[in-house]
Structures are given as C-alpha cells and as structure tokens.
Write a structure and sequence with these properties.
Blueprint lengths: L1 E7 L2 E10 L4 H13 L4 E12 L1 H16 L3 E5 L3 H10 L7 E2 L2 H6 L1
Parallel strand pairs: 2-3, 3-4, 4-5
Antiparallel strand pairs: 1-2
Helix pairs in contact: 1-2
Length: 109
C-alpha cells in the first residue's frame, strides 16, 4: 500500500494505492491519526487506485472518520472502483460517509 497526502481547497487529500488489508490497515490508521494530531480534520480519501479493501481496512477508515469528526471535521471518500465499490456498498459504508464519483466533486462539497 502506498499513501500520499496533499492539501487542496482546505482539505487533506489522502490518495491510497494498492490494498488496505489486515497487514496495511494499521499503517493507514497511524498515518491518518498523525495528520489529525497535527490539526487536519477535513479529509478526502481518494480510492481511485485502491485494488482491495478488507474488513480491517474498512475499520481503519471508520476510525479515521470518527477521529476527524471528534475534532469538528469530516471524512469523505471518492473514486471507488470495482470490488472496492462493491465492498463499500455491501458493508453499508456508502451510508456512513459521503461518497463522490471524483476528487473534483468531493472538493466542491
């Protein structure tokens, strides 16, 4: 898993590539928490290059979302593809977080 962060239009964009699974979820959670600790609280998680997400990965996104909300911010996701999109739909995560088709749409929100 590769994670990169950038700042756009008052949001922290977290682009994730590869897989968020049992092995990589703790690293995702840690990196998101580091950003929240430094004061970031509005996140767009760009999943356009995410190939797979497990229940551990879903949990790590949920933890990041709750931490962000606790500081007065929010987390949304964008650009879900293929199996990742299906996992979000089946698990009900599409009702927990705002989901956008593209990064541009998410940033306009």
């Amino acid at each position: 898993m590769d994670i990169s962060f950038s700042e756009k239009e008052g949001c922290t964009v977290c682009a994730v590539q590869g897989r968020i699974d049992t092995v990589t979820a703790p690293d995702f959670e840690k990196k998101m928490q580091e950003r929240i600790t430094r004061g970031a609280n509005r996140f767009v998680v760009d999943l356009s290059k995410l190939e797979y997400i497990s229940s551990a990965g879903l949990r790590s996104i949920l933890v990041a979302g709750k931490s962000s909300k606790a500081t007065g911010g929010e987390l949304c996701c964008c650009s879900l593809q293929g199996v990742v999109k299906k996992v979000f739909e089946v698990s009900g995560f599409t009702s927990l977080f705002p989901i956008f088709d593209s990064l541009d749409e998410a940033l306009k929100k």
